[in-house]
Amino acid sequence: MGCSTSRNADVASAKLYVPELKELATMLQTALKDNFETVETEVTECIDLTKWGCAAPGIGGNCRIIDVGGVPNLLDPKYHKSAIFQLPSVAEQVGLKGAYIYGACAASHLVVGVNAELMPTEHISKKCRCTKYSKVLEDGSHTMEAYDSSEFGLLGNFVACDGKTTPVVKVRVKKRKGEENFVSCMRKGLAKALEESKVNVDGAKSAQIGIGGVFKVVSGKIHGHVMPDFKKTVMIDGPEVEEWLNFYEMGPDLTCLSVFLSGDPAKEKQESKEDFGLDLRLEHTHFFSQSKKEGGHYHFDKTPDDVEYVGYFLPAPVVYRVDNAFARERACQADK
């Protein structure tokens, strides 16, 4: 892969371990019990998620996780105009034309006019789109509006599926007593469970679980960010990006679209700095309100005594990596 500002349509994939739903419910119960005072997990039929503002009633059927682009597209201005993607094209690239897609990504600046957060929930074949975007205003406040496009920019983490109502794992937690946020707690708990069980998956270097789900912040406030417009200079990931982001306290009554993995199934050793695997982002959650102009990127809750989450989750058997921006940057460095 040479050094170029044009997009490369490369697609890689890796198998994931798919536990039985009862097993997954038990794993999540164990993962969450030390972090929240009340934890309830069960296998049940998914509620009608259109009532939560989603474009499909369920999250089941032919599930697959997708990681598109990457942070390098955000850091360097030379990619801001070229790193533009279309959800229907991504669905076709992973073999699920017309899919229901939900998750967390950046908006297209060509649609919004500025850099912004995107909360995609779109059933492509049914031509049903409930996507929202959130942007920073000139006075430093933020707003959220409907987004009438399938286009997104820079990076994204998604679940593609049929959008069917199927059995799922329902999780309800209240009153946080530990330090982890809701999503990180589940993700790290699954990683620990897999490490202890030594599960193998044919064709993968290491067994990992990938989860997609929709959850609601029923009560309490959360800490989230909204990206401002692009910087005109190259940023270094880390403190510089944290300082650039705009953080707000939002909630409750937030619908959260979440994608997370216990680890990268293409990596032999998860902590290795030489083994890049698929360069996967291990968790990404965006949220929107149905009653207020609030939306953005979820970090953690700010009111541990009052917080309550309830959500519906499913494992996916495969993760796809599309247009890997990290691999492109390594190729650029090698060409110098």
Automatic annotation (TrEMBL):
<protein>
    <recommendedName>
        <fullName>DUF1907 domain-containing protein</fullName>
    </recommendedName>
</protein>
<keyword id="KW-0378">Hydrolase</keyword>
<comment type="subunit">
    <text>Monomer.</text>
</comment>
<dbReference type="GO" id="GO:0005634">
    <property type="term" value="C:nucleus"/>
</dbReference>
<keyword id="KW-0862">Zinc</keyword>
<keyword id="KW-0479">Metal-binding</keyword>
<dbReference type="InterPro" id="IPR015021">
    <property type="entry name" value="C11orf54_DUF1907"/>
</dbReference>
<feature type="domain" description="DUF1907">
    <location>
        <begin position="27"/>
        <end position="322"/>
    </location>
</feature>
<keyword id="KW-0539">Nucleus</keyword>
<dbReference type="Pfam" id="PF08925">
    <property type="entry name" value="DUF1907"/>
</dbReference>
<dbReference type="GO" id="GO:0008270">
    <property type="term" value="F:zinc ion binding"/>
</dbReference>
<dbReference type="GO" id="GO:0016788">
    <property type="term" value="F:hydrolase activity, acting on ester bonds"/>
</dbReference>
